[in-house]
Amino acid sequence: MRALVVVATCIGVAASIVIPAQAEQPKLTQPKLTKEQAAAVAAYDKALAAFKKVLAERRAQIDALQAPAQKPAKKQAKVKALPSLPGQAIYLARLKVMSTYKDLTEVLPSRIGRPNKFSVPPAYFEAGIEPLIEDYADLFRIMQAPPAYAQSSETPLRDVVQLGTAIARAKGADAAAAERAGLIALGIFFAETNARQNIGNARSNTYKGSLQTGPTEDRNGRRKWAAIKQAVAKLDPAVAARDDAEEARAAGIDQRFNHWTAVRNGLMNAHADLFEDIPAIVAMLPDEIDQMKLFQLIQIVPTPTRAALKSGDVAAYEISDRRIMGFLRNNSIFTFGHADRARKSATYREILDAMWLFNAKFEKARARFAAIKHGAAE
Question: How far apart are CA 125 and CA 99, in angstroms?
């Protein structure tokens, strides 16, 4: 063992003190990764780099569009034009990041980190990339901004609740079921647009507005509303009067960009016929979040979801259609990690459990519904 010699001064007398040196600490070595683990690390790093790259590219493209025209510097790189569906590439890149991270944590659980602000299970999301997701969300807010002619509401959440409740009553639901329909309608609004009214869609040229409906769905909902409008007027004259005013206001525009008519038509198209079945649905699925998830599945995979309801035991109903499983994966259900992507079938209980990305949205909807019910302002 080597010794260190320190010269010290004590009351003006110099002295040499021999102090034993501490033993050298052995260097900590990381366990060697297996071939599978190393491949998973490399795949995640590659996906993360690609996500950062496409975020930076979209930001530059949007900044270039928003900046005043000016002559570019000679050495300045030319910014590519914004593609027609600018959100698709960054959406897929985000899915890839989460999927490869889940692949990584499956083979290397030590990479599972701290909880994150988005309430995503830590095995699916590295908390250190939260700023990237915030940038991602900001880009979508810009890319999906409502068109200039869109007609917004000062009470968008209350409108959704009123319409869901009124439609359910007109379809024959009792007071309790109609109230639950208002909550479910608000949940759909949060799920589809994060409760942002009249937005466009950076991933689709078809689906637009507060409930993200296509032109055919919007027209179908409008036709169905006309069939129950008189019943609504008898039960709730205030809703009917508001509807008359919004119809007049929206004359000459795409009704998907008037918040009231967009929500009305969207609910009538996909959900209204099931509102009177809410008591049976509540009996099969007592949890409110599950109920909102089920009605969201009416948006995503309507045919098998209606079949599941008719079966009498929705939780046990199983689907194995490859195309339906593909629709689910396109909506972040069974999308992340080897095990989920390998699935060839699933029961509705498993599907509902796999919709964990919707949980935070539905919890917000439930909280806002309670506030509205107690008279809080939006």
Answer: 9
